[in-house]
Amino acid sequence: MKVITAVLVAIGTAMALAAPTTKRAVYGDKAVIGYFEPLHGFPIYEFDFSKYTHINYAFGYMWKGAPDPYVIYIDNAVEGPKLKELVKRGHANGIKVIMSIGGWYGSQTFSEVAADPSKRKKWIESAMTFLRPNTLSDDAPIPNGWNMDGLDIDWEFPGRPGAICNTVSPSDTTNFLQLLKEVRAHMDLEFSSDYKTITSAVSIFPWAGADGSFLTDIRAFIPVFDWVNIMVYDVHGPWSTSTGPNAPLYNAPAPGDPFSAQQALDTWTSAGWPKEKIALGTPFYGRAFTTTVNMNTRHPITQYAPHTGVAPKGGPSDSNATFP
């Protein structure tokens, strides 16, 4: 098995991960993976593709209110030209371009899809459209293929609610594994001469079991994934018990929350996940707090302090979000 050291970096939104692949992958022994979010306006022609080996396109969405809630959508009018350009420029620079599906707001119907054989079949066919080459003319308004190199399945989160609009079932993780097996089998059959990867953005804890607790044995998932991208960011934010670093390397002292990169690695590997199939997420952004004390005059000075739960407004697209 070939080990890949990878850093997953978000372009425009910015986060980074360190990631491995299986022996079937052909990208060498290192990977640097970036997320591209098309609505932030970052021009693709300004990318320095030499910094990356993979780019994840974020996201393909699944909506309850969509004409068909069980297929994957992008805004073709707005995003289609950007996705075409990203794939074209990425491939010209030797970069693999991957479709990331779901995310915080786009995972609404994953639970329903994974639970039903007919919905799984429909969803897989929808996903394959992003991997197949386009056989229509280049100026076709909607291509029948996007010629991408893999799928990054960002279900947030099997067996746990994530966004409040998501459907959740105690059987989610079992059904997720079945969906993945069917996706992997289909991809290996259809793309036998052009290997496509399957990855997943995951929490700092493994997937949840039927009782809602995190699984302690996840070895059944190893064959279906090339690697997982552990989201070791947003550990502290306006929702947490105190101020603290966004992505701590080690657990914070009290009163900081006891989560970190080291904790995530220990938890996943203790559950049977191989280190060579882990991409470690690193953010290239920060979080703001409104504290209830003057941190400059505290003795000793510390980065852990009480706060109001209101996030100060940053850039034009930010809001003054309030967290309980």
From TrEMBL:
Q: Which residues form the signal peptide?
A: 1-18
Q: Which GO terms describe its cellular component?
A: extracellular region
Q: Does the keyword Glycosyltransferase apply?
A: no
Q: Which reactions appear under catalytic activity for this entry?
A: Random endo-hydrolysis of N-acetyl-beta-D-glucosaminide (1->4)-beta-linkages in chitin and chitodextrins
Give positions of region: Disordered. Answer: 303-324
One GO process term, biological-process aspect:
chitin catabolic process
Alphabetically list the UniProt keywords. Carbohydrate metabolism, Chitin degradation, Glycosidase, Hydrolase, Polysaccharide degradation, Signal
In the record, what terms sit under GO molecular function?
A: chitin binding; endochitinase activity
Kindly name one Pfam family recorded for this protein: Glyco_hydro_18
The protein's matches in InterPro entries, at most eight in alphabetical order, are given as: Chitinase_II/V-like_cat, GH, Glyco_hydro18_cat, Glyco_hydro_18_chit_AS, Glycosyl_Hydrlase_18
Q: Which parts pass through the membrane?
A: none
Q: Where does the GH18 domain lie? A: 30-324
Entry similarity comment: Belongs to the glycosyl hydrolase 18 family.
Q: Which PANTHER family match?
A: CHITINASE, CHITINASE 12-RELATED
**What is the protein's given name?**
GH18 domain-containing protein
The organism is Linnemannia exigua
What is this organism's lineage? Answer: Eukaryota, Fungi, Fungi incertae sedis, Mucoromycota, Mortierellomycotina
